[in-house]
Specification:
By secondary structure, this protein is an alpha+beta fold. Among the domains are: 71-111, no CATH class; 116-218, Band 7 domain (Tetrahydropterin Synthase, Chain A, 2-Layer Sandwich), CATH 3.30.479.30; 293-315 and 353-371. Helices cover 56% and strands 17% of the residues. It contains ten helices and eight strands. The protein has helices at 29-40, 47-68, 145-150, 155-171, 176-182, 184-202, 223-292, 294-310, 331-350, 354-370, and strands at residues 71-74, 78-84, 87-92, 95-98, 105-111, 116-125, 131-142, 206-217. The strands form three sheets. Strands 3-2-5 form a three-stranded antiparallel beta sheet. Strands 6-7-8 form a three-stranded antiparallel beta sheet. Helix 4 (155-171) crosses helix 6 and helix 8 packs across helix 10 (354-370). The radius of gyration is 62 Å and the shape is rod-shaped. One of its GO terms (biological process) is proteolysis.
Length: 371
């Protein structure tokens, strides 16, 4: 039977009747559920109270849902910036977070670990008034979510424009050959430093990780001439390296040959000087002896000369006492002895001999004596 049917003591909202336990002040759970069911399901003139209660619960549910909408999750790679009435309030890290729901507060999440890329290709003028086409790739990431969202309108577009400005400044201070051939990495490193200074000045909340120069070349209209110039430069360097290699090979050989010839000449000079000094010393000694005993010295010199001559010639002894008209001469033996003597003479002439020199000196003295 419903609580609002006729009958006393069945209205759970009045104090008359068995609305409470007889021994205490705490209502029974079943009784409370029955009262709530009856409250929102009234059938008579008391249904207005049931309607107002339903509206209250509905409002409470809406408020609960509105409050629960303030919960949000921030993953490990992100930072959340909380805005209160559109103005910056705070920055939240990873985890389950809550803020006052809309329209009071809202959050914006920014990935601060992702490495982003920006590619720029443009034509620039070098210091020597040549045009060069460059293609650069910039790798960067966010370091401050607050500055990234509020310092500039579009940080990524700002980075692209700052990259072009920094590279133009560096290219304009260097020659075409340096940018294209010699200093490509140097240009990229300088561009990274200058670009970071510009971004820090704008407080963009970005940090440049790396700047890579993908391509650097002359315009297509002069590409063929540029390739010919590069080839000529490479040929020049190759010829220069070959010449240096030949020079490094020949110079040590020439220096060695020159040193050897100088050494041989020095040795020959020393030997000639020593030989001349020896001849002078022997002549001085011979002159001393000659002054003491001229006849004996001349006789000794004569005998030494004959000994020297006869020792190097073939000899045939003939017994003149026998009157034999037929003389046998061993010509083959004489020729052999002559060839041997000639060979010995060559060998002896190649080596300085003290006896030959003394014999020549004795011969000269003997000739003077005869005169």
């Amino acid at each position: 039977m419903a609580w609002n049917e006729p009958g006393g003591g069945r209205d759970p909202w009045n104090n008359n009747g068995g609305g409470r336990r007889s021994g205490g002040n705490t209502p029974d759970v079943d009784e409370i559920l029955k009262r709530l069911k009856a409250r929102f399901g009234g059938r008579d003139g008391k249904g207005g109270k049931g309607f107002s209660g339903a509206v209250l619960l509905l409002l409470l549910a809406i408020v609960a849902l509105w409050g629960a909408s303030g919960f949000y999750m921030v993953n490990e790679r992100e930072q959340a910036v909380v805005l209160r009435f559109g103005a910056y309030s705070r920055t939240e890290g990873p985890g389950l977070r809550w803020h006052v729901p809309w329209p009071f507060e809202r959050e914006e999440k920014v990935n601060v670990t992702e490495v982003r890329e920006s590619t720029d290709r443009s034509s620039m003028l070098t210091e020597d008034e040549n045009i060069v086409e460059l293609e650069l790739k910039v790798q960067y990431r966010v370091t401050s979510a607050e500055n990234y969202l509020f310092s500039v309108k579009d940080p990524d577009a700002t980075l692209r424009q700052a990259t072009r400005s920094a590279v133009r400044q560096i290219v304009g201070r260097n020659t075409f050959d340096f940018v294209v051939i010699e200093g490509r990495q140097a240009v990229a490193d300088r561009a990274r430093t200058l670009l970071q200074d510009i971004l820090d000045g704008y407080e963009t909340g970005l940090i440049v990780m790396q700047v890579n120069m993908i391509d650097a070349r002359a315009p297509a209209q002069v590409q063929d001439a540029f390739l010919d110039a590069i080839k000529a430069r490479e040929d020049q360097q190759r010829f220069k390296n070959e010449a240096e290699s030949y020079s490094n090979e020949r110079l040590p050989q020439a220096r060695g040959t020159a040193a050897r010839q100088v050494s041989q000449a020095t040795g020959y000079r020393d030997s000639v000087v020593a030989e001349a000094e020896g001849d002078v010393a022997r002549f001085t000694q011979l002159l001393t002896e000659y002054e003491k005993a001229p006849k004996v010295t001349r006789q000794r010199m004569y005998l030494d000369a004959l000994e020297d001559v006869m020792s190097r010639t073939g000899k045939v002894l003939v017994d003149a006492s026998e009157a034999n008209p037929m003389l046998y001469l061993p010509l083959d033996q004489l020729m052999k002895n002559r060839s041997d003597a000639t060979t010995d003479g060559k060998t002896t002439s190649s080596l300085p001999s003290t006896s030959s020199n003394s014999s020549s000196n004795d011969n000269r003295l003997r000739e003077r004596e005869r005169r």
